[in-house]
Amino acid sequence: MSNSITYLKKFLFKSLFIALALGSVHTVSAQTDTAKTDSAAKPTAAGTAVSTPAGDAAAGEALFKQNCTACHKIDQKMTGPALGPAIEAEPDKAWLIKWIRNNQALIDAKDPKAVKLVAEYNGANMTAFPQFSDADILNIIAYVDKEWASMKAAKATPDAAAATAKQADEGPGGLVIWGLLGVIVIAVIVILVLNRVIGTLERLLSKQTGVEPLLAEAEAEEDAVAVDRFAPLKRLAKNKKFVFFVVVCGALALGSWSWTTMWNTGISQGYQPVQPIKFPHDLHAGTMKMECQYCHSGAFKSKNASIPSLNVCMNCHKVVKTESAEIQKIYTALGYDPSSQKYDSTKARPIQWVRIHNLPDLAYFNHSQHVKVGGIACQTCHGPVQTMEEVYQYSPLTMKWCIQCHKRTEVNSKGNAYYDQVIAAHDKIKKGQKVTAAVLGGLECGKCHY
Asked: Which of 69, 161, 430, 440 has the fewest CB atoms found within 10 Å of its own CB?
């Protein structure tokens, strides 16, 4: 029976050690494992393809801007309804053609849809367009459908991509860490219970072998000795298996903490410095629907997105919000006197903007390659800037994050001269023809002079 107890002790300690080791391996693997959600969401570089009614969107754009913008926006309600969701919800394009050309005729005929629409807008009359042909109206509808699809894709796709990338790069979840702590606590409880069980088994064995009287005498002698408050700790310290277990737990806990700390070293995700001028991106890019490239014009044509010149701000703010304290800071930096509308270059000084997104020198990133060639939306990397009152670093910008984006982003080569050259070079290689650096774009100035 003594051999059985010894075997039981060894078996239980080995089982606990294996369980603890598996918990630690799970924690580390949660850090290093590449995201398995690459196939769950695959945003395309060019956006989501949607079906549109027969029509020429380019021709419809000109007609829309000339005739419709006074009362309608595609995504917002103005004098009239938001056209994007309104046209999307109306499957009968023939009815739309009649309504746009002469809505009053439908109202006079008591058409249910027309009557309901007029009642919704308190009897407001819509301008009739009898000069429009069916093709003209279908062109406008095609343009509205195209723009509305692009707006929906711009809102949904970058956030989904960023969320997927963030989930893939954020390391071990809280559930894993708490699970490991739970394993450790349960292991300690099991050890304490097993010690009691083993003690009981040893006493039973002593009774059978006649050793119990000797143990009783030894216990009586121990009781006669003065009580030592640290005796339990001393006994535990002499227990080699317990000491080994404590050392292993400490090493695993320290290793997990060290790994997590080192993993997040140098990552500035969420960094939001205070800028010298409070520029509300949610107002300009969100409410006003201004394109990012209007201010950051370099993103479309160069390596850097560029900091916008204050003269870009003055295009609007010579007359808009001139009383704002933040606009007054722009005037001061330019040496501009709003009363005389003159500039004094001797008083001009640069704005000390604080950089937010900063890649290490060893990483080369070209904005134009992603924005112009790849067709990637700014929100894919910078997050929903149109909702940020103050911009912060949305994405981790780590090597792993970039690689995962490159793995899941599909290349749209249609109508792209750069990819046309690459495909032509591949065709030459297949035919065994000579491929030079010039064929791969080696004569472009930007290859060296970026």
From this structure: 430
In degrees to the nearest 10, what's the CA dihedral of 328, 332, 335, 339? 30
Asked whether 285 and 220 are in contact (CB, 8 A), the reply is no
Return the structure tokens found at 153. Answer: 């894709």
Nearest to 282 by CA among 427, 389, 136, 367: 389
Whether residue 234 is found in the same domain as residue 338: no
Cα–Cα distance measured from residue 443 to residue 438, given in angstroms and rounded to the nearest whole number: 5
| Cα(182)–Cα(176) distance, integer angstroms | 10
- The region, left, alpha or beta by phi > 0 then psi within -120 to 50, assigned to residue 35 is beta
pLDDT, one tens digit for every residue, the chain (450 residues): 555 555 555 555 555 555 555 555 454 444 444 444 444 444 443 334 334 446 788 887 888 887 887 778 788 776 678 888 888 888 888 888 888 888 888 888 888 887 887 787 766 678 888 888 888 888 888 888 888 888 888 777 655 555 555 555 555 566 777 877 888 888 878 887 887 888 787 777 777 766 555 556 666 655 555 566 777 777 778 888 888 888 999 999 999 999 888 888 888 899 999 999 999 999 999 999 999 999 998 998 889 998 999 999 999 998 888 889 999 999 999 999 988 889 999 999 999 999 999 988 888 999 998 998 888 999 999 999 999 999 999 999 999 999 999 999 888 777 777 778 888 888 888 998 888 888 777 787 877 886
β-bridge partners, 342:
337
pTM to 2 decimal places: 0.46
Domain of residue 427 covers 418-447
Residues 331 and 259 grouped into a single domain: no
Q: Do 251 and 373 sit in the same domain of this protein?
A: no
Q: How many domains does the chain have?
A: 3
Distances (CA, A) of 318 to 47, 289, 332: 37, 20, 13
Closest CA to 376 of 292, 286, 280: 292
Does any domain span residue 374?
Answer: yes
